[in-house]
Amino acid sequence: MAARVKLPGSWPARLQSWVGGAWRPSTSASVQTLPVHCSALNKTLCEYEVAGTEDVEEAVRVATAAQREWARWAPAERGRVLRRAADILTERNDELSALEAFDTSRPLQETLYVDIVSARDALEYYGGLAATIGGEMIQQPNQSWAYTIREPLGVTCGIGAWNYPMQSAGWKAAPALACGNAILFKPAEDTPLTALALGEVLREAGLPDGLYNVMLGAGETGQLLTRHPGISKVSFTGSVPTGKAICRDAADSLKKVQMELGGKSPLIIFEDTDLDEAVSATMLANWYSNGEVCSNGTRVFVQASIKDRFLDELVRRTGKIKLGDPLDMETQMSALINEKHFAKVMSYIEKGQAEGARLVMGGERVSVEGDCAASACFMTPAIFDNCTDDMSIVREEIFGPVASILTFETEEEVVRRANDTDFGLSAGVFTNDIRRAHRVIREVKAGTTWINNYNLAPAEIPWIGHKSSGIGGSNGTLGIEDWTQIKSVYVEMDKVDCPYE
Ligand code: NDP
C-alpha cells in the first residue's frame, strides 16, 4: 500500500492546516489529532492536527488582509492564476487521483477521470469568466441613470462532504477566488488530503498567500467558521440536518448561506425507452462511487409493462460488478467510507426487508481478498423490488448502494409520486418521446435534472437543489451570483427635485 500511495514529498509527516500559504502547526493548548484512514485497505497513512479557536482566528486575520489586496487585482489577472492552477492539476492528476482513491475508498478508475478533473474544470471555467464579471446599466428619467457593481463578499468559508473532497474544494474555491474573495475551506474529517493539495497547487500557480486556507478538523472546527463574525458567507455541502444547524449558527452574524444538501431522487423510466440505456443509467445512478452520491437516482420508477425485463437486465449486469481494492484499475466498487456509515447503510437492508420489500440481490457484507482483507466495510450492491412509496428505504437518504424499484402505470401518477418527498435535488427521465421528456422534467420538483442520462455535472451548468435539498447553488454563472453582492449606484444628471424651501 505504502508504495502505491504516498504523501507529496513536501508535506510534513503529521499534517496541519494550510494557512497563509504554509502549513500551520496548531496552537491549541492540547493538540488533538485525527487519522487519515482508508476503510477499504484498513490502513492509516498519517494523522493531522485539528484546528482550534486560535487557528481559525489567525486564518481569518490572514485572509482578511489578503482579500483586501486581491479584490483590487484586475479580474483578468485573477482568472489567469486560476487557469494556471487548472493546468497544474492536469499535470498532477495521476498522483492526486491516487490520494483521492485512498482517502475516499472510491475506485481509482473513477477518481482518475472525475475528481481532479472536475476541480480543474471549475478553475478553468471561472478563470475564463473572471474578466466578464460586471453589472448592468439602468436608464432613469432626465438622462439620469443607475448602474450596478458586483462586489466580492470578503472572507468566506466552505465546508465539504467526504464523498467528493477535491470536487467540493474546487467548486467552492474557484468561483470564490474568481470573484475576489478569500476562502477558508474545511474538508470532511475523513478526507482532508486533496483539499490540502489544492492549496499547494494554487500557491504554485501564483495565488497570493492567505486567499485559500484549509482548516482541518471535525464538525467543531466547522462551527468555529460558521459562527465567526468575520466570515460573510458559508458554502456548505452535506446532509440536511447539518445544513439546518449551520443555517442556525450562521444566523447570528447574518451570513449569506449556500446549501448543497442530500437527496432521494427519482429516476423515471418509460416503456418506450431504450432498455439498455436505461439500465446503464440506473447502474451509474446507484453504484457509481459506491452509491455515495448526493444526486443518485435511488427511487427507480419503471413503467409496469417493462419492469420484469428491466429488472432481469439490471440484476444480470449488477452481478458482474467488480468489488475490490480502490487502487486497482479493474475495481468498479469498493468499501464504504467508514464503519459507522457502513452500519447505517446495512441497517436499511434490514429495514427494507422488515417493511415488506423483496431483496432481489446484494446487501451482504463481504470480504475482499488481498490488501483489502482486513476491511469490514464492503457490501454488495443491493436491489429491492416490490417497494412502496411509504417505506423507509424509499423515503430516506441512504447514501450507499441500495436501489429501490417502483412501478407505475401513467405519466400523471409517476410525476405525483416522484414529487412526494421533501428533497428536491435531482431527477432523471428516460423516454424517446421528446414532448413527454420535457413535460415531465418541467413537472418534477428538483433543481438538477437530466433527460436520457444521469449524474453529469459539467462546470458550466448550474448545480442546484430545490426544496430541502439546498439554497443557492454551484457552477455556471449562478456561481458568480452566489459569490458576489450587488451594489447599486444612482447617478443624478439633473437637479435635485426637492419639495423643501
Ligand atoms: P455531514 O452533514 O455529516 O457533514 C458535512 C460536513 O459538515 C463535514 O465536513 C462535517 O464535518 C461538517 N460538520 C458537521 N457538523 C457541523 C457543524 N455543526 N457545523 C459545521 N460543520 C459541521 O455530511 P456527510 O459528510 O456525511 O456527507 C453526506 C451528505 O452530504 C449526504 O446527505 C449527501 O447527500 C450530501 N452531499 C450533497 C451534495 C450536493 O451537491 N448537494 C454533494 C455531496 C454530498 P465531519 O466530517 O467532521 O463530520
TrEMBL record:
<dbReference type="InterPro" id="IPR016163">
    <property type="entry name" value="Ald_DH_C"/>
</dbReference>
<protein>
    <submittedName>
        <fullName>Aldehyde dehydrogenase</fullName>
    </submittedName>
</protein>
<feature type="active site">
    <location>
        <position position="260"/>
    </location>
</feature>
<dbReference type="Pfam" id="PF00171">
    <property type="entry name" value="Aldedh"/>
</dbReference>
<dbReference type="InterPro" id="IPR016161">
    <property type="entry name" value="Ald_DH/histidinol_DH"/>
</dbReference>
<comment type="similarity">
    <text>Belongs to the aldehyde dehydrogenase family.</text>
</comment>
<keyword id="KW-0560">Oxidoreductase</keyword>
<dbReference type="InterPro" id="IPR015590">
    <property type="entry name" value="Aldehyde_DH_dom"/>
</dbReference>
<dbReference type="GO" id="GO:0016620">
    <property type="term" value="F:oxidoreductase activity, acting on the aldehyde or oxo group of donors, NAD or NADP as acceptor"/>
</dbReference>
<dbReference type="InterPro" id="IPR029510">
    <property type="entry name" value="Ald_DH_CS_GLU"/>
</dbReference>
<feature type="domain" description="Aldehyde dehydrogenase">
    <location>
        <begin position="29"/>
        <end position="489"/>
    </location>
</feature>
<dbReference type="InterPro" id="IPR016162">
    <property type="entry name" value="Ald_DH_N"/>
</dbReference>
